[in-house]
Amino acid sequence: MNWIYWVCVGQAGRMKPEANLTGLFVPLVTPFTDDLRLAPDALARLADEALIGGARGLVALGTTAEAATLTAEEKRAVVRICSAACRAHGAPLIVGVGTNDTAAAITTLQELAQSGDVAAALVPTPPYTRPGEAGTLAHFTALAEHGGLPLVVYDIPYRTGQCLSTSSLTALGHLPQVVGVKYATGVIDAAAMELLGKPVPGFSVLGGDDAVISPLLAAGAHGGILASANVRTADFAELISLWQRDAAGPARGLGAELARLSAALFAEPNPAVTKGVLHAQGRIPSPAVRLPLLAASADSVRRASALAASRAAHQETAA
């Protein structure tokens, strides 16, 4: 199924692509073998498990996937595997395109668009270059006009070294090809409230700071792109559903529990602890990460693993 459909945004007859970006999107880890080769069968299982577990869609080649360390051939394989899983489940696929080279990003977007299997691209504010807000708007405008794919802006200042104001995000939201933002500013402040309080039609706000996803959903976020959801996918999907149904009491309780899990999973650089937990669960063949990341300590993996059991298992233990 093609998840992209066209809706009018009332700007001189221009049309806006929307990729139905609500709910949980899981940015998958990239499983490796002990000798750091790609483990495609394990990735296919993870993709299938996430979608069966309640994820609305998948994100390939995000930070959690260690995309910066993958070869071009490995990146193509990861997208191919995730695309197959999404086709099988009728789910949208978002692909990370992280670069501070506008021309290179356009080329990558055009290549992804040709496959026909990608609902949107997740693109960060240009890192390291720090072009300023005017340069950032020009960057995303060029990608929107020439890339051929709907875009999800990735606002993550502690990685890119640059903040985006609410006015800039709103302006980006009115670009015909920009369909959402992964909002990972590290805080829920007046700017977040302003963004969520004045929603732009066809522009989804997806939380990207795992530990505070629950209050962001309470404030009106449409869903989340959550690395922690590689673990306990069904519970993160349920958290989003609870807030969407205005079931505040159960949502607060589950949100607090999952915040503790997220804190444990991010105790060391992402995705080292998550990979350690997945390996301990027998879901990937190795906890290996590629340099410059190091494998998580045994203590961190042990603490996170204790929190990684399903909600039902925790309730049984409490009883």
* First-residue to last-residue Cα separation: 44 Å
- Spell the H/E element sequence: EEEHEHEHEHEHHEHEHEHHHHH
Number of helices: 13
What would you call the structural class?
A: alpha/beta
The stretches of 5 or more residues where confidence is low (pLDDT under 50) are: 1-13
Tell me the helix content: 40-55%
| Mean of residue pLDDT values | 92
Strand count, sense and closure of the main sheet?
8 strands, parallel, barrel
> Order of strands in the sheet with the most strands?
3-4-5-6-7-8-9-10
Total DSSP E strands: 10
| Molecular shape | globular
DSSP strand content: 15-25%
- The radius of gyration is 19 Å
Per-chain topology:
Blueprint: E1 5-11, E2 14-18, E3 23-27, H1 40-52, E4 57-60, H2 72-89, E5 93-96, H3 102-115, E6 120-124, H4 132-146, E7 151-155, H5 157-160, H6 166-173, E8 178-183, H7 190-197, E9 204-207, H8 213-218, E10 223-225, H9 233-244, H10 248-265, H11 272-280, H12 298-307, H13 311-318
Parallel strand pairs: 3-4, 3-10, 4-5, 5-6, 6-7, 7-8, 8-9, 9-10
Antiparallel strand pairs: 1-2
Task: Summarize this structure briefly.
The protein is α/β, with parallel strands linked by helices and 319 residues long. The protein is built from 13 helices and ten strands.
What would the keywords be for this entry?
single chain; 319 residues; alpha/beta; eight-stranded parallel beta barrel; two-stranded antiparallel sheet; 13 helices; 45% helix; globular
